[in-house]
Amino acid sequence: MSHGWEAIRADVLRRIQTREWGPGAAIPTEEALSREFGCARATVGRALRDLAATGVLERRRKAGTRVAMRPVRRATLEIPVIRQEVERRGQTYAYRLLADAPEPPPLPVALRLRLPAGAVLRHLTCLHSADGRPFICEDRWLNPAALGGQQPDFAAQSANEWLVANMPYTAGDIAFSAAGAGADDAAAFGIDPGTPLFIVERTTWTADTAITFVRLAYMPGYRLRMTL
Amino acid sequence: MSHGWEAIRADVLRRIQTREWGPGAAIPTEEALSREFGCARATVGRALRDLAATGVLERRRKAGTRVAMRPVRRATLEIPVIRQEVERRGQTYAYRLLADAPEPPPLPVALRLRLPAGAVLRHLTCLHSADGRPFICEDRWLNPAALGGQQPDFAAQSANEWLVANMPYTAGDIAFSAAGAGADDAAAFGIDPGTPLFIVERTTWTADTAITFVRLAYMPGYRLRMTL
DNA sequence: GGCGGGATTATGTGCAGACATATTTGTGTA
DNA sequence: TACACAAATATGTCTGCACATAATCCCGCC
Question: How far apart are CA A142 and CA A164, in angstroms?
Fold first, then answer.
């Protein structure tokens, strides 16, 4: 037990792991713990707040702090820009724009972006590759209205990077799933249609207008890893 | 701007979103901001720390605080117990143990758990269902040595729930991928072998001994959703 | 010009005290 | 018994101050 609030956090976690404080049990008050550890209440509070943020503890005013009954595993997933992900694997990144044309979106896309009927979006298809081999097949629908008049050329810079640089700090949601390769995916990856692919779908918003919906089909065998 | 550190966080975020402070730009010091907002430095620090935790800001001692150059999207993923996930969808949960026998693990599993050669694990196969329809096909390798002498019966209670209740707060890693349904998966779900399935693989550790490796094959069409 | 080392500085952490807020708990009343 | 209300209490937040720590800056020296 060296020092600081992280030491307190570690010690509390240890007591939980050794079941000195079992699931559902109430642990001493901040005040009591601060006396035990010989520090200020704020310091204990910092440690406990951190453990609550990771789902180990549950805290309620007046009710006190207790060990979470069923530990909700909360993992933070970092979603990198594709270029970074490739380069971090020590491979060289390349990007190619395959198609770029205005089109009315299919119904599921229009619904997701909550677009009025008849809206026309910019439809992009591009291929991200690592060391020359296809890595991700991107299928993107972009709302021109959300771009503020600009109509960037995505031949050189990927839409992914342009958006990160020019429309950062947006909100949205993301979904993971598995799907069989479509005709386009199969052609891009050089595989049979129907081959299982890992799919990431992302919808991005500014305050209230939809910016883009993108579907990323990862190369066969791709695994998204994270630590609990 | 109502009150408290959350108001400060909101205001700082607003200035970033309106590009008053562009990507890479340094923002005023805590001291300057505390004067501007008319509050203590600690309060500003709380707000900025929170924004740094979500990847919007980057902070370094002496160097100051700046807007993240490439906003790393950090999403927190909550991994629920399977029963909870099913019940939250308003469906009734059921569980069935299909097989339970000691077996030497296949090489990839042994490597992942860093087991000595010749170790024998408990191999479980079970099916989680929602409203009577197969939901998840579970294939688990359990290290008896890590269970501390106990040999629970998993016919009634799923290994998932037993572990959460009896060996909580462990570490591990998790991976998402897509794979074609194997013979077992296909039989359980009543689908053709090779149908794309969403796969979650998890490895769990206590301090230094491997507890379990589990592969969850989700029903066809399953989507894992999260908010950014 | 290049380099090393100390002064400077912004964040990180800590303390003690105060008040705010949400619950729970206990009490008195209908 | 049931219910409304008040007291008690643990956490949530804020202030103001202090010192620690890690970069950076800058000055003097070679």
Answer: 14
Enter the tokens of residue B142. 């359990």
B40 touches strand C (CB under 7 A): no
Q: Which nucleotides of D are covered by protein (CB under 7 A)?
A: 8-18, 20-24
- Would you tell me which residues 116-175 of chain B have a C-beta closer than 8 angstroms to some C-beta of chain A? 164-165, 168-169, 171-175
The domain made up of A5-67 is a member of CATH 3.30.70.870: no
Structure tokens at B183: 């013979």
Q: What is the pLDDT of residues A89-99, one digit of tens each?
A: 999 999 999 99
Distance between CA atoms of residues A83 and B196, nearest Å? 27
How many Cβ atoms sit within 10 Å of the Cβ of residue B24?
11
pLDDT averaged over every residue in chain A:
91
Class of the CATH domain delimited by B82-218 = alpha beta
The full set of domain ranges for chain A reads 5-67, 82-218
Distance CA B78, CA B146 (A): 25
Spatial contact of B99 and B123, defined as CB atoms under 8 Å apart:
yes
What pLDDT was estimated at residue A51?
95
Q: Given this model, what pLDDT does residue A2 score? A: 58
- Please name the residue whose C-alpha is nearest to the C1' of nucleotide D12: A61
Any alpha helices (H) in chain B, and if so which ranges? 4-17, 30-37, 41-53, 82-88, 107-112, 159-166, 183-189
Q: Please name the CATH architecture into which domain B4-67 falls.
A: Orthogonal Bundle (1.10)
- Please indicate whether, in this complex, the C-beta atoms of B223 and A76 are within 8 angstroms of each other: no
Task: Using pLDDT thresholds of 50, 70 and 90, give the confidence band for residue A69.
Answer: confident
